[in-house]
């Protein structure tokens, strides 16, 4: 009986750890800032663990979280490489050296009222 409660406690700890780690949503438009293969904006669309990429060269690809690495790494199938993203999702760095920065759009400056 004692072993059952110990195993239950260990199992609960693993489930709580896995569910408390919320992955970041990478959906958005990105601008290539290093080692670019094109000059188009890059796009990432994420729905849960399913990730679709459109590179700066216009190449579509499917990606998914890389199960063999930490939680901030994705594997891109057609590029045959992985990429790591920053904790805030603002940067994506590929194994090839390419770096994407999230494009938040133009800065809007408000004029003060007179």
Structure explained in plain terms:
The protein has a domain at 25-102: Beta Barrel (Lipocalin). Helices cover 17% and strands 36% of the residues. It is built from one helix and eight strands. The protein has an eight-stranded antiparallel β-barrel with strand order 1-2-3-4-5-6-7-8. The chain is globular, with a radius of gyration of 19 Å. 14% of the residues are buried.
Strand and helix map with partners:
Elements: H1 2-20, E1 28-34, E2 42-47, E3 50-54, E4 60-65, E5 73-76, E6 81-85, E7 91-94, E8 99-102
Antiparallel strand pairs: 1-2, 1-8, 2-3, 3-4, 4-5, 5-6, 6-7, 7-8
CATH fold-level topology of the domain at 25-102: Lipocalin
Going by helix content, strand content and strand pairing, the class is: alpha+beta
Widest beta sheet: strand line-up: 1-2-3-4-5-6-7-8
User: What is the straight-line distance between the termini?
Assistant: 76 Å
Largest sheet: 8 strands, antiparallel, barrel
Number of strands: 8
What is the helix tally? Answer: 1
Radius of gyration (Å): 19 Å
Provide the CATH architecture of the domain at 25-102: Beta Barrel
Tell me, briefly, the overall form.
globular
> Class of the domain at 25-102, according to the CATH hierarchy?
Mainly Beta
Q: What is the overall pLDDT average?
A: 83
Low-confidence segments, ≥5 residues, pLDDT <50?
3-22
**Helicity, in percent?**
10-25%
Helix-strand string:
HEEEEEEEE
Report the β-strand fraction as a percent range: 35-45%
